[in-house]
Design brief:
Layout (H helix, E strand, L loop, with lengths): L10 H19 L2 H6 L4 E5 L5 E4 L1 H7 L3 H4 L11 H18 L1 E11 L3 E13 L5 E10 L1 H41 L12 E7 L9 E7 L5 E8 L4 H20 L3 H15 L8 E10 L4 E8 L4 E4 L5 E4 L16 E7 L4 E5 L1 H4 L2 E2 L4 E2 L1 H11 L5 H14 L8 E7 L14
Antiparallel strand pairs: 1-2, 1-5, 3-4, 4-5, 6-17, 7-8, 8-9, 9-10, 10-13, 11-12, 11-14, 14-17, 15-16
Helix pairs in contact: 7-8
Length: about 425
């Protein structure tokens, strides 16, 4: 049943309804041909070889061509730029043939006035009831505004990328300079000591900061060798300056009087006087002297606030060489240092290390690795010499991951075990 408007209906409402009806009527009067020809996007249909069979006015206007110039005379690829043709032949057409449809492909048309017009293309193959391909229907969307937006985004991204590359290049140059400076604070290579094997390793916690760990091995005379390993408080250029001063002082003091306590006392005096006011600087260190003999190497060392040295014995055990009373170097004018003596026999290795190793964080609870774990680790390794122990410890440090957050220096000095004597063959 149809209801007519009552006498109380609002005239304004009636006017709006009438305007809406007029709009719908206008839309219904649009012919399909007009909708096709004047669509806000380009339409064309091509044979399977790409020959254009039908094209709408919108796309012709973009191209600046007449229908007679295009239909039956040009292929879809002819409407594209050189780069677009190449992409059409190598990617677009094969993909369309394989899948029967491609969507949203970005190409460039050769538009009117020899202009390059960015477009987004979607094509679909029409097939017969038997599945045979008949023709290709293609829709072309104007992408000039989108391209302009993308170009602006790309320009911003390139500027940001260039700034990032420049920052990385500056950082790399800084790291290279710091690496060179760091290398100058360490021996380029350890010398060969008769009857002794030496190995070392240095881990830098941050490539952007100079570390304060140091070590060295050098001759005192024809029969004796001196070694030291230590850790300067802090990082950066100031710590590096203290490291350089410390290494120079230890070497010079050892050549004057190699007694370990005297050498550390000299260093203590130099650091305390140099940094007695203002920014206090100090370090920990072990200094020692090696005296090779016929069947062993005598070790005499002194420690100033440094972790005790560890000896890996040939019999599969490991023990610390305790120096419990040594004081920090450079804090007090009359610091006291603890001495220790030992002998290294064939297969024994003396290990010196900085606290980056024992203070590494391990496990889910981030517990300190500790001296007990280090002793157990050393005892579990085969007594195969200094370099083998350094290699094992390097793997251990790598396994700590981000739990190793401090610089770590290692110095191992060992007496090689004698080579096994080959068994004699039975005489026949």
């Amino acid at each position: 049943m149809t209801c007519s408007a009552g006498p109380d209906q609002d005239p304004e409402t009636e006017s709006e309804a009438g305007a809406t009806d007029a709009t719908f009527t206008s839309l219904l009067e649009d012919s399909a041909e007009e909708l096709y020809e004047q669509a806000p996007c380009g339409y064309l249909s091509t044979l399977m070889d790409g020959t254009i069979a039908k094209i709408n006015t919108t796309l012709l206007d973009w191209l600046g061509l007449s229908r007679a110039q295009v239909v039956g005379r040009m292929r879809f690829a002819d409407l594209l730029t050189v780069g677009g043709k190449l992409y059409h032949e190598t990617h677009f057409a094969p993909l369309l043939q394989m899948k029967g449809e491609v969507s949203g492909i970005a190409l460039d048309l050769r538009a009117a006035g020899k202009q390059r017009m960015p477009v987004l293309v979607t094509s679909k193959v029409k097939t017969s009831d038997d599945g045979e391909p008949l023709l290709i229907r293609t829709t072309v969307f104007d992408a000039r505004e989108r391209r302009a937006y993308e170009t602006e985004l790309l320009r911003g991204r390139r500027a940001a990328e260039e700034a990032r590359r420049q920052a990385e290049a500056d950082r790399e140059r800084l790291q290279e300079a710091l690496a060179v400076l760091q290398q100058n604070l360490l021996p380029a290579e350890l010398p060969e000591v008769p009857g002794l094997e030496a190995g070392s390793y240095y881990h830098t916690a941050s490539p952007d900061l100079l570390g304060g760990d140091f070590y060295d091995l050098f001759p005192l005379d024809a029969d004796r060798w001196a070694f030291f390993l230590g850790d300067v408080c802090g990082k950066g250029p100031q710590a590096a300056a203290v490291t350089s001063l410390t290494r120079y002082t230890l070497r010079a003091a050892a050549l004057h009087d190699p007694d370990p306590v005297t050498v550390l006392s000299t260093l203590n005096t130099v650091l305390h006087e140099r940094y007695t006011s203002g920014d206090t600087r100090y370090c920990t260190a072990i200094f020692g002297v090696l005296n090779p003999a016929d069947d062993h190497v005598s070790v005499h060392l002194a420690s100033g606030g440094h972790p005790s040295a560890l000896i890996q014995h040939a019999d599969g055990t490991a023990d610390y060489l305790p120096t419990p009373g040594g004081m920090l170097i450079g804090v007090l004018p009359g610091a006291q240092f603890e001495t220790a003596r030992s002998r290294l026999f064939p297969g024994d290795t003396l290990l010196l290390y900085t606290d980056g190793l024992t203070e590494a964080r391990t496990g889910p609870d981030r517990e300190l690795y500790g001296e007990d774990a280090l002793r157990a680790f050393a005892a579990a390794q085969p007594a195969a010499g200094s370099q083998a122990l350094i290699t094992a410890l390097t793997g251990l440090l790598t396994g700590f991951g981000d739990g190793l957050d401090d610089d770590t220096a290692l110095l191992a000095l060992g007496v090689p075990a004698p080579l096994p004597t080959p068994a004699s063959e039975d005489l026949r």
